[in-house]
Amino acid sequence: MANPPVIILIEPQLGENIGKAARAMLNCGLVDLRLVRPRDGWPSAAATANASGADIVVDNAKLFDREEDALADLNRVYVTTARTRDAIKPVFTPRGLAPELRANVARGEKVGVLFGPERTGVRNEHVSMADAVITVPLNPGFTSLNLAQAVLLIGYEWWQAGVAVPEYQMLMNDTFPATRDEIELMFGHLETELDQSGFFRVEAKKPPMMRNIRNIFNRSNLTHQEVQTVRGMIVAMCGAKHRKKS
């Protein structure tokens, strides 16, 4: 989208961490990074190195001395924290927030997500600046995330809310799914050869055994090429058997 959320990092400590967060941002189509009082100063060679090519994010990062200035042009602000403290605020998960972010941006609003200092997390004054809180549902006994992880979780859900990617798909590459006719011919070929080889020793057990064999292959989502390969294997094995007998 033309106006993706802004990421605001309050007092980030290491340039390495900023660079990794920038990399996570660009993975998810986020490019507007704002830094408030980075501990080791700015610009940072370490940030550039750890951004792994996300130069558009690092090179255009904006530096601020005050949180208020970093948020001044935003219509809505969301703050990330594992603790809601004493504030009465709406609380979103990253997945729950993503549709709201998309809707806000679609209306032309400028929105930002605020991340607190790495050592202490956000302070009460940061929570009071925000419209709502984002809390990631994690193991209650250990909710600690590093900066890049936290940015990626928010960014990932933002990106996923705007793309139509199937939850599951079978990659066919240069082939295509086998037709039912091809599969039935394969089963018929296999059954004939198994019959001739004496595989079905008890005639009454033949139907359930063939059903089991069918289930094995039908679970595989066979392609046209795979059916041809199986039939070639049957021919090769049967040919070897006939040659051995002769």
From TrEMBL:
Domain of life: Bacteria
UniProt name for this protein: rRNA methyltransferase
Protein's UniProt keywords contain Transferase: yes
GO biological process: tRNA nucleoside ribose methylation
Annotated Gene Ontology cellular component terms: cytosol
Domain tRNA/rRNA methyltransferase SpoU type: 6-156
InterPro entries (alphabetical): Alpha/beta_knot_MTases (IPR029028), RNA_MeTrfase_TrmJ/LasT (IPR004384), SpoU_MeTrfase (IPR001537), tRNA_m1G_MTases_N (IPR029026)
Keyword Manganese attached: no
Keywords recorded for this protein, A-Z: Methyltransferase, S-adenosyl-L-methionine, Transferase
